[in-house]
Amino acid sequence: MNFLGSFLSAIKPRNDDDSIDRLNYYYTCVIILVLSITISAKQYVGAPIQCWVPAQFTGAWEQYAENFCFVQNTYWLPLNDHIPTRHVERDQRQIGYYQWVPFILAMEAVFFYVPCIFWRQMNWQSGIDILSIIKMAGDTENIHGEARAKAVNTITQHLEDSIALQESFSKRTTSTWRSIFLQFGKAKGYYVTFLYVATKMLYILNVAIQFLVMNDFLGQDNHLWGLQILYDLANGREWEESGNFPRVTLCDFE
């Protein structure tokens, strides 16, 4: 729990982003991380799988079978189907995601936070202290008179200094890659705008890639698989028929 508390304090929202950003890098990240920790506790502290074994098995044999089947993967069949005699057919029906769920969820949480790291690490190079300006501008709502005018003048002066710095960049005529970046970024005043749009695109790209990766990880060919699960639940089509996250599976071992 100390780790979770430290992580939450490190990713806490700031004033230089909006509600959509926070939904991605904070709320979604926290929910996924909590689920990852909860599932990890169940799998690696409790009993992640229980096997129905022959009556002559001792306790040690049963424990071996459960550990083996959890690591080796199991396979699912509808309850009324006959077990295939060919091992190839059994391998094609294997379910290999249960034991990897905590790690995949933790990785997803990290990737939801990556665009936020990009934004926070890059925006300070614009020469504009965006976080301080937004915080100061917000504070002016609660102050009046000379204090308010002083705060507004401070913000104005900072922006004027930033514009002057950008103009000094634009006078450079060298043709290095760094100067080209400055010409089309900081020198033209596009840096913060480009960075903000790039961060938004990273959030969208992250969600799209995670949908594709999750679909491949779960072995589904339907990209609307999540909607299909909701449709099955709404129509009373349980896992025994659909095979969505089956509770009872089979395992072969010697």
UniProtKB/TrEMBL annotation:
Alphabetized GO MF terms: gap junction channel activity
Keywords: Cell junction, Cell membrane, Gap junction, Ion channel, Ion transport, Membrane, Transmembrane, Transmembrane helix, Transport
Bilayer disposition of the protein: Multi-pass membrane protein
Chief location of this protein within or outside the cell: other
Any one cellular-component term (Gene Ontology): gap junction
Gene Ontology BP term (one): monoatomic ion transmembrane transport
Membrane-spanning ranges: 24-45, 97-119, 190-213
Record localization: Cell junction, Gap junction; Cell membrane
Summary of the function given for this chain in its UniProt record: Structural component of the gap junctions.
Similarity-based family: Belongs to the pannexin family.
PANTHER family associated with the record: INNEXIN (PTHR11893), INNEXIN-5 (PTHR11893:SF36)
Protein's recorded name: Innexin
Source organism of the structure: Plectus sambesii
